[in-house]
Every structure is written in structure tokens, then in C-alpha cells.
Amino acid sequence: MLTPERYQMILALLKQKQVVKMQELVDATGTSESTIRRDLIQLEKEGCLRRIHGGASLLEGKRREPSIFEKAERNISEKRRIAKAAAALVEDGDSIYLDAGTTTLQMIEYLVQKDITVVTNGLHLIDTLLERGIDTYLLGGKIKNKTRAFIGRGALESLQTYRFDKCFLGVNGIHTEYGYTTPDPEEALIKMTAISLSHQVFVVADQTKFGNISFSKIADVEQASIITNGPETEHMREIATQTLIKVV
Questions:
Q1: Most Cβ neighbours (<10 Å): which of 40, 71, 96, 202?
Q2: What are the distances in angstroms from CA 71 to CA 49, 147, 172?
Q3: Which residues of 58-79 are buried (b: 16+ CB within 10 A; e: fewer)?
Q4: CA angle, corner 140, sides to 167 and 100, nearest 5?
């Protein structure tokens, strides 16, 4: 099979399945793993796909944003490991900001520290926080239906009245040059402001976010530490030269 034919087959499979494993590509093209690996490297350079551990994934549009329900079903076990490691960083008496996200939601189960206070813009976090008896403040503003996040002027003005020991943020993309990104400029502004109000900042994101670029920049990579899952990828090793990464 000629190289252009392999490229077409790889991209067709990705379009159909969104994520394709290396062995699937080897079987489909009848070529070696080393050949497919070279193909993926080249196609990634051309902006056609994104390499992930053990295969490749289709690039999403920079403004496309999965709903909270779509995200909740992705990489559940990985998110729980990340959430547990993140929650362990909270200390008794801390005031923390929990971003609206599915990994931050998973953190709540592991928050066993005494006398902590949580501020959040995540509507879907509230019930779980209250069930655990955690002192909680919810930002006001406009509710974004897709992510159940409070955004807009009301949320921003409310957020600016607080100061945090630690904040935990979700992102859609982590890139060496373009930093942390998310599809919505209004959500990006909320996240950016939370960073500026926090003594320590942690991004909680599974490894699929590395190498992604979304529409709106939140911050440079060095402005937060990252808690993610393994195994390490090439993108993660590049990011590790700019900030601290904890792999769980």
C-alpha cells in the first residue's frame, strides 16, 4: 500500500471512530507498527490528527465543546485517580476553588480534610458538596447549559471577592506554546481570574488533553502545576520542561 493510501485509510478510520488504536491501524493497512508510527508522526505534523498513547485521536474543532454529560462518560477511572491525588493536596482549614468540571466533581468524594471551604462555579458540584457537609459558596451569573458552569459578569464579580489557598481547574487543551485553553472565552476568563486569586494552582486533566489547542487561552503552562494520569507521552515530557507534572 502506498503512503498516501495509508494516510487516507488512517484518517477515514479516525473520522469513523474518533480514536483508533495502533494495532487497529496495523491490521487495517497490513503494515508494520513502525511504519504506522511514522505515518502518525507525519500526520500530526500536518495537523490532521493527534497522537495519544497506543494510537491516535481525531482533532476537534477549537470551538467545539463536549457537554458535561459527554465528558462524564470519558476516561472515568483515570479521572478518579487524578481526583484522588488532587484531593490529597488539600489541607485542613484550606479555602479552595473547584472549577466546573467532571474531574473536580470526582475530587469531592476524597475531600476528608477538616474545616475546608469550597467556592465553585459548577452547578453540578453543589449537591455532592452539601451531602458531604462541606461549607460551600456558589458563584452567581449566567448558567451555561452545556457545562453547567456559571459564567459572565455576575460570576466574575462574585469570584473577585474571594481569595484561595488552592484552586483546581479543568481544561480542554495543554500545549507547550499556547498554554492552557478552553473553547469558551467567558469560561476562560473565570478560570484565568481564579488563577490570579489563588496561592497554588493545579490543573487536573487526563493525558488526552496534552497537545490539544482550544479557542480561548486561559494561562501559560508555567502558571499551574498539572495532575494527570500515565503513562507518560511525548507531549507530557515536553510540558514537564515548563512546569511540574504529577503523574498518577
A1: 96
A2: 20, 9, 11
A3: bbbeeeebbebeebeeebeebb
A4: 40
Query: Which residues make Cβ contacts (< 8 Å) with residue 15, sequence separation at least 6?
Result: 58
Cα–Cα dist 40/244, whole Å: 28
Helix (H, G, I), strand (E, B) or coil at 149: strand
Q: Chain-wide mean pLDDT for the chain? A: 91
Rg (CA), the chain: 19
With a pLDDT cut of 90, the percent of the chain lying above it is: 70
Determine how β-strand 225-228 pairs with β-strand 245-247: parallel
What are the Cα distances from residue 42, in Å, to 26, 45, 49, 133, 174?
Answer: 16, 5, 9, 52, 20
